[in-house]
């Protein structure tokens, strides 16, 4: 099991298959229920992630899916497989790392946990990209989420100009609008 950077408030560990039910519940709650500021319920219906999707990420050697588990003690030793309060994935490529599956339970949003999780994922990715020519951190967001774009811009991400229509393939939820686009954001690693 690969560990990420610990801070006094944050203890992340790599997801395990036993975490799949909790991750499915967290991702679908954060993205598809009308809860928290990060939800997409007005824009996309249906499910955000299936157990099969999550298992594929956990099993893919290029992916690192990290979870912030609920703990009884507040320490790494008190972590149990079960309740997951946050997650973030890093998909490693030769010169860039794609950050996705980023979710924080709505009851914890606005307390700085997401900032810490994103910083930890960026540090992890940057260390793994050491030596790459012009390493970059990449992600995508929905076009109709200006508050989310502003959040990432405050953290140094910039629009690349690349965009693609939101996939209407039944595997990513059902768009409630025909004009949804995914914007690509990027920043220099390190």
From TrEMBL:
This protein's name: GNAT family N-acetyltransferase
UniProt signal peptide: none
Domain N-acetyltransferase positions: 10-181
Alphabetical list of InterPro entries matching this protein: Acyl_CoA_acyltransferase, Bact_Acetyltransf, GNAT_dom
Domain of life the protein comes from: Bacteria
Keywords of the record: Acyltransferase, Transferase
Gene3D superfamilies assigned to the protein according to its UniProt record, in alphabetical order: 3.40.630.30
Pfam families (UniProt xref): Acetyltransf_7
Cited PROSITE patterns: GNAT (PS51186)
